[in-house]
Each structure stands twice: as structure tokens, then as C-alpha cells.
Amino acid sequence: MVAIELTLRSIIAAGFCNAHFILCSDNSGVVGAFHAGLSHNAQQNSVLHRIICLLLEHSLWLTTIWVPSKDNLADGPSWGIFPIAPKFMHAAYIPTALCPFMSVI
User: Fold this and answer.
1) CA–CA separation, 62 vs 65, rounded Å?
2) What residues contact 45, with CB distance under 8 A and at least 6 apart?
3) For 21-72, how does the pLDDT look when each residue is reduced to its tens digit (9 = 90+)?
4) Angle at 16 between CA 21 and CA 34, to 5 degrees
5) What is the pLDDT of residue 16?
6) How confident is the model at residue 84, as a pLDDT?
7) Phi-psi bin for 59: left (phi > 0), alpha (psi -120 to 50), beta?
8) In whole angstroms, what is the distance from residue 105 CA to residue 101 CA?
9) pTM score of the predicted model
10) Could you please report the per-residue DSSP string of the chain?
11) What is the rounded CA–CA span in Å between residue 52 and residue 5?
12) Residue 73 has pLDDT above 80, yes or no
């Protein structure tokens, strides 16, 4: 769920508004919680609340779709394997609650 929030914050930092994005994830729990609008995990619900506030504030819409890990283009970066030249680099605001979990950005 935090990956969705950080992606959304990068989208906002790039200046997007009034737009629809399709986000593919290999995490079925995150996709399910996003579709349901809630999770059984309190921390995940806090992140989901921030995501919803950002979507409303910037008139953005996200559709999440589950994909197998082998088809997930973000699987490499999630393991620290980055492409030679990043295609989308915009500095995003990192909320204080997430800072302790950020080791390399």
C-alpha cells in the first residue's frame, strides 16, 4: 500500500490532476484492500486514508489490477534492481510517518 502512496505522490509532484491511472501490482492483498477501501491492518488503513485524501484533493483516479510477479514491471525496483535510466523521476513529499522506512531514495 505504501508503494501506491509513493507512486501517487510522484504523480502529483509531476503536476498531474484530473487524470486516471492504472496501477498493476503483484500483491493481491493490497489490490483487494484498495478495491474494498479497507484492510484488516490498522497501518494499512492509515495509508489508504492518505491515498484517498490525495486522490480527492487532486481529482485523480486509480484503478488497481493484480498481475503475476513475472509480468510486474515494478518487481525489479521493488528488490533494488533499477533500470539503467529511470523514466519517471519527480521528487515527492514523503510523509513523516513513512520516513523511518525509507532507506534509499
Assistant:
1) 10
2) 38, 39
3) 998 888 899 999 999 989 898 989 999 999 999 999 999 999 999 999 888 7
4) 35
5) 92
6) 66
7) left
8) 11
9) 0.73
10) -HHHHHHHHHHHHTT--SEEEEEEES-HHHHHHHHHT--S-HHHHHHHHHHHHHHHHTTEEEEEEE--GGG-TTHHHHTT---SS-S-----PPPGGGGGG----
11) 9
12) no
Cα–Cα distance, 71 to 68 (Å, whole number):
5
Q: Residue 39 is placed in which grid cell?
A: 484492510
Name the grid cell of 1: 500500500
Q: Which residues of 37-63 are buried (b: 16+ CB within 10 A; e: fewer)?
A: eebeeeebeebbebbeebeeeeebebe
Query: Given the C-alpha cell 483487494, which residue does it identify?
Result: 32
Residue 51, pLDDT score: 95
First to last CA, the chain: 17
